Model the fold of this input.
Amino acid sequence: MTVGLPWVDADRVLSTGFAAAVDALEAALADGLDPAEDPARISVPLAHGEFLLMPSQGPGVAGVKLLTVAPGNPERDLPRVQAVYLLCDAETLTPRALLDGSALTTLRTPALSAVAARHLAPSEPARVVVFGSGPQAWGHVHALAAVRELAEVVVAGRSAARAEELAVRLRTEGFAARAGSGNAVADATIVVCATTASEPVFDGALVRDDAFVVAVGSHERDRRELDGELVGRSQVVVEDVATALREAGDIVMAIDEGQTDAAALEPLAEIVRGAASVDQNRPRVFKSVGMGWEDLVVAAACVTAAG
Done:
């Protein structure tokens, strides 16, 4: 029965908290969840955009995120991407809850980056540079704060006004934040790329050998935020190798340029489980395209937290 299906709105999704989402994702990987078993993202073209479907199943639960992508929406003052999430019982497939899918993305993407940061970022108080000024940029600061002390946050955005707006918001939330330029990566120990860019957003040669870099802005083969030089000299960690080779432009283009190859990619699960070592002598890059298992794990945590 779906009568009275519980609705978990954006506020209740986000109230689950980044720390809880980080722990849920890490526990899932540590307990043996294999991202390689996830179904591929499904795209359905529409007259004014597309549907994206992201299904997954796990112990006790199954679910699917339905995203709508309407490129013309920003001109209407509407979000380009909107989403809902359906969580079901795994055995009967009876719907259990509907969640705000956009808020779920805001929670789970930074949380997964923070799982990677917990294992790959330097342990000292972090000097963070964030490229982007939207919900993902904001969320990454909060998620990183769940796994590292943040000494400074520099927001570098295409719009100086929006970068300053986010910096002000972060300061009111207790962070030492300021707007700045991309050249700040030269002093950063953590770099976050959360943009809609199609070309690299900074010079990879500026990145320190001990830095951790995360890129989450795209799941398209012809778009990237990181240049091939940085990818080529870094230890590169991905959610799943096959998915990265299918969807991660940062990786695909670096391979096409001869900067790296598929054999060099490390699955995050192997890092979390200690089956792969961390190379502390060069930058560590985590490239995420977003996968259905992440939504499933965090959605289940949100429904549990919501009672």
About this structure: The chain has two domains: 7-104+293-306, 110-291. The radius of gyration is 18 Å. The CA atoms of residues 167 and 178 lie 5 Å apart. The chain has a mean pLDDT of 95.
